[in-house]
């Protein structure tokens, strides 16, 4: 059983071994997380080539060697060659995070299927048992939590900061935080107006 966490990889060095479509999908997610990506592969997709040309990642146009993993915080072995992926797994140090796309048992972390709505991230993992099922569940979740949730989460963040700055009473603080996450509040047409009314009512009690 794995331990689910959210890892901040901003400006962390991440090495992706492989330059095909699977590597490309991994790279898209890594870029969203603002990682410093290094790709090791003799050939890459057009998309990865464009990123390299634009200076958005480093492409080492070569076959993998153990030295490529030096200083890597996180490693992804994403080639279509089992022997190369095995070599990457063997070269990784115990303190490095590694995901081998075709060998979950040689990985110490998994990349879940993800639904993002602004600051809201919902991750689904079957721990490698069925990535297809994880994607299916994510599709169902995406229908439940539409794009408007991104704006709602941003609003909740601002409200929470305001409440923490201006409310000292712990009971009232909790009452406000609970109320703004209620379904009735979320479905209101004017969140700012409803929050002002709610704040005045709670603080006046």
UniProtKB/TrEMBL annotation:
<dbReference type="Pfam" id="PF13241">
    <property type="entry name" value="NAD_binding_7"/>
</dbReference>
<dbReference type="InterPro" id="IPR036291">
    <property type="entry name" value="NAD(P)-bd_dom_sf"/>
</dbReference>
<keyword id="KW-0627">Porphyrin biosynthesis</keyword>
<keyword id="KW-0520">NAD</keyword>
<dbReference type="GO" id="GO:0043115">
    <property type="term" value="F:precorrin-2 dehydrogenase activity"/>
</dbReference>
<keyword id="KW-0560">Oxidoreductase</keyword>
<feature type="domain" description="Siroheme synthase central">
    <location>
        <begin position="117"/>
        <end position="143"/>
    </location>
</feature>
<dbReference type="InterPro" id="IPR042518">
    <property type="entry name" value="SirC_C"/>
</dbReference>
<comment type="pathway">
    <text>Porphyrin-containing compound metabolism; siroheme biosynthesis; sirohydrochlorin from precorrin-2: step 1/1.</text>
</comment>
<dbReference type="GO" id="GO:0019354">
    <property type="term" value="P:siroheme biosynthetic process"/>
</dbReference>
<dbReference type="InterPro" id="IPR028281">
    <property type="entry name" value="Sirohaem_synthase_central"/>
</dbReference>
<dbReference type="InterPro" id="IPR028161">
    <property type="entry name" value="Met8-like"/>
</dbReference>
<dbReference type="Pfam" id="PF22440">
    <property type="entry name" value="SirC_C"/>
</dbReference>
<protein>
    <recommendedName>
        <fullName>precorrin-2 dehydrogenase</fullName>
        <ecNumber>1.3.1.76</ecNumber>
    </recommendedName>
</protein>
<dbReference type="Pfam" id="PF14824">
    <property type="entry name" value="Sirohm_synth_M"/>
</dbReference>
<dbReference type="InterPro" id="IPR006367">
    <property type="entry name" value="Sirohaem_synthase_N"/>
</dbReference>
<dbReference type="GO" id="GO:0004325">
    <property type="term" value="F:ferrochelatase activity"/>
</dbReference>
